[in-house]
């Protein structure tokens, strides 16, 4: 008989926690998961899945316009936000049920309570009950950050945006990252006037400069406004319920919804980590080694709470590696090199490997190939939006070290191309591949 109630106790039933719990149970461990809200975590409940469904919905605005150029007699259409909102939330319910079913099928006990750490092998539930486990895995994710300014409580975050009662006419979005630019495109296509307010002068920091500049250019051409170097001073709520946003260095902006998309921080506050001497870094993330083990040997952490790479597929890989290492005697780590990423803006961006600036700083001698083109569909539709593909190579070896693109279906195209970059293929390998014509993806093998 074990000295503990469980072999593994997981705090948080998001993507990383669910994968770790399911695989650990499949390896024979007795596993419990505590989740204070819903099974599925940020990605499924309030993140990438419902957001992507909104992106799909938003695309119809332009598709319906373009259809007329392709011979379709499309009448003037109106958008019904409650219909899309309720359908998206219903799909979230469906996924919540599937994730719950997956854990049940693997014999994982689900405890619908908040759990905190009471000791190296001990967790305390909100009901006051205390349970013990040989290992504890923290997978509570991250939480949206809100600026510290007067009236900030009148804004919303990505947690609440999916539940809006009505579609606002005027939206101010604070931030310059992927969440800000994705929701800017969504709200704009739904008919709102959108203003992005950023405290710096750069959007999408970390992405290739030429690609993000193209998105800025297209976004402004569509009618999205930008205010740079404009930190928040205060937010005032008026009698009619609308807001006035005051910023340093520019005129106030009136809006109906203020969305804070100013980053996410690990959700470690109040978790009781000090009770097990678990150390945090300067951003409040749990410090872990390559095997996701914290400074307390019995406590591990995966996903956004470690602040390594805040991406759902990475959390899943970390959860899998943890379970295999601890419960299958198969130690292995996650390879964080060449992780592809995407921004589901309008149009979307995607990239893998080094940006041009990173490659110049790291390798010195590089060759950059680009293809700047207008997609065939946009030509016939009379839409002047141009795509841009960019390949960055080591000048000495010809190895492709970075691939970045913006244009229709860029994330779908990049996923396959990322395999080539990860495998270390050369520009010659792309040149030797026959083009698939006519397609946008053929530009990858035609760059000279």
Features:
448 residues, alpha/beta, FAD/NAD(P)-binding domain, Enolase-like, domain 1, seven-stranded mixed sheet, five-stranded antiparallel sheet, 11 helices, 31% helix, globular
The total number of structural domains is 3
Low-confidence stretches: none
How many beta-strand elements? 21
For the report, how would you describe the main beta sheet? 7 strands, mixed
| Number of DSSP helical runs | 11
Any idea of the CATH class of the largest domain? Alpha Beta
Shape field: globular
- Mean pLDDT comes to 96
CATH architecture of the largest domain: 3-Layer(bba) Sandwich
Helix content: 25-40%
Determine the CATH topology of the largest domain.
FAD/NAD(P)-binding domain
Please state the CA-atom Rg, rounded to the nearest Å. Answer: 24 Å
Strand content: 15-25%
- Pairing-aware structural class of the strands and helices? alpha/beta
How far do the termini sit from each other? 67 Å
Can you describe what's shown?
This protein is of the alpha/beta class and 448 residues long. The protein has 3 domains: 6-143 and 265-327, FAD/NAD(P)-binding domain (3-Layer(bba) Sandwich), CATH 3.50.50; 152-262, 3-Layer(bba) Sandwich (FAD/NAD(P)-binding domain); 347-445, FAD/NAD-linked reductase, C-terminal dimerisation domain (Enolase-like, domain 1, 2-Layer Sandwich). Helices cover 31% and strands 23% of the residues. It has 11 helices and 21 strands. The strands form 5 sheets. Strands 1, 2, 3, 4, 5, 6 and 16 form a 7-stranded mixed β-sheet that branches. A 5-stranded antiparallel β-sheet has the order 17-18-21-20-19, sandwiched between helices. Strands 10-9-8-14 form a 4-stranded parallel β-sheet, with helices on one face. A hairpin with a 2-residue loop joins strand 4 (115-119) and strand 5 (122-125). Helix 1 runs parallel beside helix 7 and helix 3 (48-67) crosses helix 5. The chain is globular, with a radius of gyration of 24 Å.
